[in-house]
Amino acid sequence: MDTHDLVAVSERRQHQVDRVLRSFFDDSHYRAKALGNPYAALWQTLERNASGGKRFRPRMVMAAYESLGGTDIDAAAHIGAAFELLHTALIVHDDVIDRDFVRRGGPNVSGSYRDLATTAGIPLPIAEHRGMSVAVIAGDLALFNAFRMIDRSGVDGVLRTRLHDILDEAMFVSAAGELLDVDFSLRSDPPAVEEIVEMERLKTAEYSFEAPLKAGAVLAGAADQAVEALGRFGRRIGIAYQIVDDLLGVFGDENETGKTALGDLREGKSTVLLAHAVTRPEWASVASLFGSPDLTAADAERIRGVLEETGSRRFAEALARENANRAWEALADESLTPEVRDEFRPVVASVLGRVR
User: Fold this and answer.
1) Is 90 exceeded by the pLDDT of residue 66?
2) Which secondary structure element, helix H or strand E, spans residue 317, and what is its range?
3) Fewest beta carbons less than 10 Å away: which of 182, 241, 327, 331?
4) What SS3 state is found at 274?
5) Per-residue pLDDT at 105 exceeds 80
6) Looking at the predicted structure, is the pLDDT value of residue 263 above 90?
């Protein structure tokens, strides 16, 4: 399949998932209007925050499903939409935890309702609390309806139970990862590389890669061995993806990544880069800058220089490549067909291509 065909397939899958989500939100808007304009406005805000993404998780569901011979595209799109709603719920709640009011360059749910409150003359601390309170409600709605979306797919019996179990495990594991991330910020000693990798596996790789791939395989009626092989692939490529994402958060070109290269440094984000660097004596020269909300572009360059000098950047890049290679090894499992390997070869190449 050439690049043009890959893009066409990706766009088709995204369109199918968008159609399912549009129908879901249309129905929710209709129901919400009967309960008053404020509730209807909340649903509009939630829909805006669920829009504009790349639909990456649904595309994982549909890629696994179609490459394994699945033909009920509407059912696959509904399962994909379930994972997109789960993603929406988790990022809405994650923004509350991090006290962030912006997402993708615009106000998130918290930010939207904070701004409405400040416009009405409410003092900022109270306005921020209102914004985060509404975001908790919105995240709850997205989370609950992620499970309901599986019911809307038309699957039933044992298959529906298995899909519910996969989504349940994704949420259960992600919560454990989020807790680890929160706890890292309270520790006096920085987490080790192994702890960071485990946190990223739990918090993100499970629900973004491993679970969607397994769900698509289960929906296609794949054998257990194939389901588990795709799960292993998802786990490793998910870890690699997160490590690369952390690298780009510090060294990436803002015009390409769409996000500032200062944010992670100002936040003091726990990453593989940090875990490696803090074990080196050179780190002491910039330790006081890391995590400063007043970090300047010049300060950031000093930190980047130390991350290069200590070999932390090279270490993180090598770890990402190692996990991507192990992901490819999982695809070599005899239970998976050449069609599956052809489907996911570009995913591995894409992750590796983001390194440097």
Assistant:
1) yes
2) helix 312-331
3) 182
4) helix
5) no
6) no
Max intra-chain CA distance, the chain: 64
Q: What is the mean pLDDT of residues 288-307?
A: 94
Helix (H) or strand (E) holding 106: strand 106-107
User: SS3 of 107, please?
Assistant: strand
Amino acid of residue 91: I
Burial of 96 (0-12, 13-18, 19+ CB in 10 A): buried
What domains are defined for the chain?
1-220 (1.10.600.10), 223-356 (1.10.600.10)
By residue count, the chain amounts to 356
d(CA 209, CA 232): 10
For residue 107, list its beta bridge partners: 102
Residue 251 pLDDT > 90: yes
pLDDT at 2: 62
The whole-angstrom separation of Cα 177 and Cα 172 is: 9
Dihedral pair phi/psi, residue 106, rounded to 5°: -135, 170
d(CA 304, CA 7): 35
pLDDT for position 79: 98
In 112-144, which positions are buried (b, 16+ CB within 10 angstroms) versus exposed (e)?
Answer: bbbebbbeeeeeeeebbebbbebbeebbebbbe
